Inverse folding.
């Protein structure tokens, strides 16, 4: 039998046996636990602080409004383009907030979010905090999955490296503190892959749990669907290694594993819809697009609930739409195939980029770790290729699986007895920590030092990379502190209502240019894509202040 060698004093799980890991001394266990707690506590503080200070981002009011309808009215009529599970998680926090919503509301999902937060007598700060807290808790729990996966791959040091990269990731912190779906979907997928990795030694209960986690991923975001075939193949890989069985027996086990994982995943999707409405009442939207060809053929035959399949049709309509993009100062229409790799290069700490690369190479190059390569590298590679082919160049949140999977892969770099690898890893992690802590509490507009840091991100990227409407409350405070009694003109990209926060402003694009004098406040995404009247207004204005690295205040004479 071949076992994974112990690295220094680290404990590593055996690669091919059911033997338990070797225990390490009590002082080592205490230090390990303290390090884990410290990393998770700093992450929790960062996320909660961010959640408390940020106003609603563009997507959040839709999800929070839909979650409220789920909880209070048990209706599936809003936001069908995303399955229910992520919004049910958000709704678990709203059970404590108990926001009021008129049961007779009949507007669209955008109006729903505005009605809930600003027109129903609710405190939007309180509602949003309660909506964000379940996602924060789930993000911390996924940190334990990252830790366990890294520890099984490369011992306790590897586990700590993986957890440190995850817990210090500005992108994970930024999106883990929001009532959105990106972190839950990616975290459930990683959990499914980790459970399949464990199923190599213990198929039960690993395989059914992996199916449930896979079902949770695709019941949160449809963008996880391309990973389903890969996960099912990994189920085959996990049971095929069983010693002492002939090929026919292995084939039967593989068929049973694939069938079991797929059925549990499918059942999980159905259950999430039935939790919202046990009678599964559904009326297709009047503007539901028709999808033809191979895509329409596949949608019609998938064994998912009807609202799920109609949600896929809406997603394909989004894919057929032409969106605006912005990359390295260039405003363009359509998509660039290299947008996501370039955005990840800007938005990922330099030390993390180095450790991701070193870990990926180590997983492939080290014989005793090579069996982990399909689990850690193929799912994110496939999802990244799929996302790169998407029509929406709107942010690294579409590739948030990368910092999760590659944090675990980075653990492989320390799975050697070479002292220099540990020294290099510690040095790079220190750089990551410094970079992450320096951006506090402005995690959403983070960029690494090679690209000028958070203050310069808006020169290279836009939308959810920088400015997602999160700083409306900070803007209100800044105007009150430094610019009281001045005339304010506002071009705001977001879902918040400026007047609620005490911002009295007019839209400068609706009056002649000659009438626009005083403060011109513009969201940085609007600056990036400025043309026509807005471009003319900016040409005659001077920047005098900025808010949260996402909003620029100009003075126009």
């Amino acid at each position: 039998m071949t076992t994974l060698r112990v690295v220094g004093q680290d404990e590593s799980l055996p690669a091919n046996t059911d033997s338990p890991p070797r225990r390490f001394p009590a002082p080592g266990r205490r230090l390990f636990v303290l390090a884990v707690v410290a990393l998770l506590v700093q992450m929790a503080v960062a996320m909660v602080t961010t959640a408390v200070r940020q106003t609603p981002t563009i997507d959040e009011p839709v999800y929070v409004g839909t979650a409220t309808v789920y909880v209070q009215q048990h209706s599936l009529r809003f936001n069908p383009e995303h399955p229910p599970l992520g919004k049910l998680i958000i709704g678990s926090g709203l059970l404590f907030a108990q926001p009021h919503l008129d049961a007779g509301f009949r507007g669209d999902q955008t109006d729903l979010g505005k009605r809930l937060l600003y027109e129903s007598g609710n405190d939007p700060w309180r509602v949003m905090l309660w909506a964000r807290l379940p996602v924060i808790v789930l993000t911390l729990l996924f940190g334990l999955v990252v830790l366990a996966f890294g520890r099984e791959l490369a011992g306790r040091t590897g586990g700590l490296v993986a957890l440190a990269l995850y817990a210090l990731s500005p992108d994970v912190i930024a999106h883990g503190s929001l009532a959105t779906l990106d972190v839950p979907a990616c975290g459930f997928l990683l959990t499914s892959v980790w459970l399949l990795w464990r199923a190599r030694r213990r198929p039960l209960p690993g395989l059914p749990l992996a199916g449930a986690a896979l079902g949770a991923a695709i019941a949160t975001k449809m963008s996880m669907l391309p990973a389903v075939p890969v996960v099912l193949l990994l189920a085959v890989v996990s049971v095929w290694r069983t010693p002492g069985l002939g090929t026919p027996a292995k084939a039967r086990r593989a068929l049973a594993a694939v069938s079991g994982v797929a059925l549990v995943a499918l059942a999980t999707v159905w259950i999430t819809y039935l939790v919202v409405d046990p009678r599964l009442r559904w009326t297709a939207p009047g503007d539901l697009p028709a999808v033809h060809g191979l895509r329409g053929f596949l949608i019609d035959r998938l064994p998912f609930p009807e609202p799920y399949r109609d949600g896929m049709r809406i997603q394909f309509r989004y894919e057929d739409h032409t969106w605006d993009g912005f990359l390295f100062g260039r405003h363009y229409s359509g998509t660039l195939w290299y947008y996501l790799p370039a955005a990840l290069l800007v938005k990922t700490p330099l030390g993390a980029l180095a450790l991701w690369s070193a870990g990926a190479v180590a997983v492939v190059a080290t014989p005793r770790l090579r069996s982990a390569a399909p689990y850690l590298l193929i799912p994110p590679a496939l999802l990244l290729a799929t996302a790169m082919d998407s029509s929406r160049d709107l942010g690294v949140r579409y590739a948030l699986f990368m910092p999760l999977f590659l944090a675990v892969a980075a653990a492989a770099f320390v799975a050697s007895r070479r002292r220099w690898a540990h020294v290099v890893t510690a040095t790079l992690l220190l750089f990551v920590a410094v970079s992450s802590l320096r951006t506090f509490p402005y995690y959403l507009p983070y960029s690494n030092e090679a690209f000028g840091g958070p203050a310069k991100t808006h020169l290279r990227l836009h939308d959810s990379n920088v400015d997602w409407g999160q700083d409306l409350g900070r803007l209100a405070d800044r105007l009150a502190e430094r610019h009281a009694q001045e005339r304010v003109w506002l071009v705001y990209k977001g879902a918040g209502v400026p007047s609620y926060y005490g911002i009295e402003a007019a839209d400068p694009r609706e009056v002649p240019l000659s009438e626009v004098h005083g403060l011109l406040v513009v969201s940085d995404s609007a600056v990036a894509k400025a043309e026509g009247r807005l471009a003319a207004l900016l040409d005659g204005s001077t920047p005098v202040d900025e808010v949260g690295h996402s909003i620029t205040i100009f003075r126009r004479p």
